């Protein structure tokens, strides 16, 4: 009998998924340091947990190995997502988790808000958070404008190829956190490996690509007209300062779309999930295990796991840095 035939017999355990690797013009080889098996020397993204159409994550471990996230949620929506999330999103997984390796600069881009994304693309918007896992010396990101701007100033600089001159740069290091609201113009600079948490959306408006061309001399498409209405021209303050209390859930971001905490795990931490929520843990360094019922499952740096809502009590044990993400 197929394990999904009995709808009432969901077995809750930490779900690990097969990475979906994306070749990018700006990608490199650093994702191999996270245990990813790279098929080329320009892998820019590893999608760790995705319900984006045509990019459905597949379970790598346990009873539901080789099942897609969509199949599982279709069969057991409340057991995986929790009742409140199912009521809000139906049988949709509302977040997308990635690792990104920028060997060279990404394009300067932005993402539309929910209203515009729904109207134009029948999609969620794309609010996101970055956690810097490794950064080369002098690596930087671009986030927002240096000062309040306008569509006129933006277009003038875009047309003159001087757009970066009015944008804000941040030098980055391991452990830095940035919150990127929709409409914020941004780019990840060369030499950065990061974890990204975002709404389930693959809608990006690319406005400047450093005049790059591919091996055939072709430039990538730009979305200047679409971006114009979507940009937030106000100065932003995206850098997140946070505590690092051991074995504690240190708040990083709390917004309408997700809450994220940093857990510097050193020993054990008991989790009481009686609030009927799913949790995602991203291991950015170290090793840890999850103890539940009479079982123990081991995980390592580069693993992203989904704890279903039906898994009410468990223990995290090990020496690791964990990002904990959930939706209230």
Automatic annotation (TrEMBL):
<dbReference type="InterPro" id="IPR014710">
    <property type="entry name" value="RmlC-like_jellyroll"/>
</dbReference>
<keyword id="KW-0479">Metal-binding</keyword>
<dbReference type="Pfam" id="PF21621">
    <property type="entry name" value="MPI_cupin_dom"/>
</dbReference>
<feature type="domain" description="Mannose-6-phosphate isomerase cupin">
    <location>
        <begin position="252"/>
        <end position="325"/>
    </location>
</feature>
<feature type="domain" description="Phosphomannose isomerase type I catalytic">
    <location>
        <begin position="18"/>
        <end position="123"/>
    </location>
</feature>
<dbReference type="InterPro" id="IPR011051">
    <property type="entry name" value="RmlC_Cupin_sf"/>
</dbReference>
<feature type="active site">
    <location>
        <position position="206"/>
    </location>
</feature>
<dbReference type="GO" id="GO:0004476">
    <property type="term" value="F:mannose-6-phosphate isomerase activity"/>
</dbReference>
<dbReference type="InterPro" id="IPR049071">
    <property type="entry name" value="MPI_cupin_dom"/>
</dbReference>
<dbReference type="InterPro" id="IPR046457">
    <property type="entry name" value="PMI_typeI_cat"/>
</dbReference>
<keyword id="KW-0862">Zinc</keyword>
<feature type="binding site">
    <location>
        <position position="186"/>
    </location>
    <ligand>
        <name>Zn(2+)</name>
    </ligand>
</feature>
<feature type="binding site">
    <location>
        <position position="128"/>
    </location>
    <ligand>
        <name>Zn(2+)</name>
    </ligand>
</feature>
<dbReference type="InterPro" id="IPR051804">
    <property type="entry name" value="Carb_Metab_Reg_Kinase/Isom"/>
</dbReference>
<dbReference type="InterPro" id="IPR014628">
    <property type="entry name" value="Man6P_isomerase_Firm_short"/>
</dbReference>
<feature type="binding site">
    <location>
        <position position="111"/>
    </location>
    <ligand>
        <name>Zn(2+)</name>
    </ligand>
</feature>
<dbReference type="GO" id="GO:0008270">
    <property type="term" value="F:zinc ion binding"/>
</dbReference>
<dbReference type="Pfam" id="PF20511">
    <property type="entry name" value="PMI_typeI_cat"/>
</dbReference>
<keyword id="KW-0413">Isomerase</keyword>
<dbReference type="GO" id="GO:0005975">
    <property type="term" value="P:carbohydrate metabolic process"/>
</dbReference>
<protein>
    <recommendedName>
        <fullName>Phosphohexomutase</fullName>
    </recommendedName>
</protein>
């Amino acid at each position: 009998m197929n394990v999904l035939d009995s709808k009432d017999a969901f077995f809750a355990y930490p779900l690990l998924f097969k990475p979906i690797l994306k070749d990018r013009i700006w990608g490199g080889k650093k994702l191999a340091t996270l245990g990813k098996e790279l098929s080329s020397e320009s892998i820019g993204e590893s999608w760790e947990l995705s319900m984006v159409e045509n990019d459905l994550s597949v379970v790598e471990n346990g009873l539901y190995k080789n099942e897609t996230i969509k199949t599982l949620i279709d069969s057991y929506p409340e057991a995986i997502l929790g009742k409140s999330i199912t009521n809000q999103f139906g049988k949709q997984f509302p977040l997308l988790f990635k690792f990104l390796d920028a060997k060279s600069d990404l394009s300067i881009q932005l993402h539309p808000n929910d209203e515009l994304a729904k109207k134009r693309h029948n999609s969620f918007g794309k609010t996101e958070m970055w956690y810097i896992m490794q950064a080369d010396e002098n690596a930087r990101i671009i986030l927002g404008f240096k000062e309040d701007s306008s569509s006129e100033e933006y277009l003038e600089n875009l047309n003159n190829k001087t757009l970066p001159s009015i944008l804000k740069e941040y030098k980055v290091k391991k452990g830095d956190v940035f919150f990127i609201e929709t409409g914020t113009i941004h780019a990840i600079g060369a030499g950065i490996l990061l974890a990204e948490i975002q709404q389930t959306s693959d809608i990006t408006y690319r406005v400047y690509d450093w005049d790059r061309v591919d091996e055939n001399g072709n430039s990538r498409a730009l979305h200047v007209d679409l971006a114009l209405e979507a940009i937030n021209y106000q100065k932003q303050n995206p850098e997140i300062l946070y505590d690092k209390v051991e074995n504690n859930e240190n708040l990083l971001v709390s917004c309408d779309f997700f809450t994220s905490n940093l857990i510097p795990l050193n020993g054990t931490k008991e989790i009481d999930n009686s609030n009927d929520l799913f949790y995602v843990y991203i291991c950015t360094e170290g090793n840890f295990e999850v103890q539940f019922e009479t079982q123990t499952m081991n995980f390592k740096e580069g693993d992203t796991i989904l704890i279903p809502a039906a898994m009410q009590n468990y223990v995290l044990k090990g020496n690791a840095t964990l990002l904990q993400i959930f939706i209230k």
